[in-house]
């Protein structure tokens, strides 16, 4: 059994400093008294439904949140590493295949360590800290050897 690697489409998330609201689509319209009303929706289908219900009354204006256009965050910048948070969401067989793991005990150990790191990062980020990338280096196997071509590993000494 082999799996094709590729991160699934991530659900959109609001970027820091976003003032759009809770949803990603906003409809601004005038009610029957002429007062301005704003409704925010998670999906475009829901926003379109309100516009359809208004049937041209109330001069509806639709807006789309720019957070939908933001690039998806992925910590894995090179093909020889895997984004830790994405890896946690994979089924066990595919997760083991991605990292080249063969033993269940190794999978359980790696999963626990990565889970702890992702939780700690989320905790720090929610307190206003810096978002730390969490990546897992793949084991070089016959199937993924082409990912390891080129580049050079350097051991960088810590600043004294």
Q: What is the average of the pLDDT values? A: 77
Whole-angstrom Rg = 23 Å
> How many helical stretches?
4
Q: How far apart are the first and last residues' alpha carbons, in Å?
A: 48 Å
Order of helices and strands: EEHEEHHHE
Which structural class do the helices and strands define?
Answer: alpha+beta
Instruction: Report low-confidence residues grouped into runs of 5 or more.
Output: 1-9
What is the overall silhouette?
elongated
- The count of β-strands is 5
Structural account:
With 160 residues, the chain is of the alpha+beta class. Among the domains are: 25-69; 81-140, no CATH class. Helices cover 29% and strands 14% of the residues. The chain has four helices and five strands; from the N terminus they run ββαββαααβ. A three-stranded antiparallel β-sheet has the order 2-1-3. β1 (25-30) and β2 form a beta hairpin. The longest helix is centred in the C-terminal third of the chain and has 23 residues, at 104-126. The radius of gyration is 23 Å and the shape is elongated. The protein starts with 24 loop residues before the first strand and ends in a 23-residue tail after the last strand. The model is unreliable at 1-9 (pLDDT under 50).
Highlighted features:
5 strands; alpha+beta; disordered N terminus; 4 helices; 14% strand; elongated; two-stranded antiparallel sheet; 3-stranded antiparallel β-sheet; 160 residues
Q: Helices, strands, pairings?
A:
Elements: E1 25-30, E2 36-41, H1 44-54, E3 61-64, E4 81-83, H2 84-88, H3 92-99, H4 104-126, E5 135-137
Antiparallel strand pairs: 1-2, 1-3, 4-5
């Amino acid at each position: 059994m082999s799996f094709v690697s590729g991160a699934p489409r991530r659900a959109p998330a609001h970027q820091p400093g976003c003032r759009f609201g809770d949803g990603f689509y906003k409809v601004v319209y005038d009610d029957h008294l002429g007062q301005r009303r704003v409704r925010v929706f998670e999906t475009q289908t829901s926003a379109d439904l309100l516009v359809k219900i208004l049937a041209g009354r109330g001069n509806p204006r639709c807006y789309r949140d720019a957070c939908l256009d933001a690039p998806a965050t992925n910590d894995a910048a090179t093909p020889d590493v895997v984004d830790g948070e994405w890896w946690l969401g994979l089924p066990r067989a595919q997760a083991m295949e991605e990292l080249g793991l063969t033993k269940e005990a190794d999978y359980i150990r790696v999963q626990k360590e990565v889970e702890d790191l992702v939780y700690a990062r989320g905790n720090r980020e929610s307190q206003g800290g810096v978002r730390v990338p969490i990546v897992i280096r793949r084991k070089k196997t016959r199937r993924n050897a082409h990912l390891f071509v080129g580049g050079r590993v350097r051991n960088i000494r810590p600043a004294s």
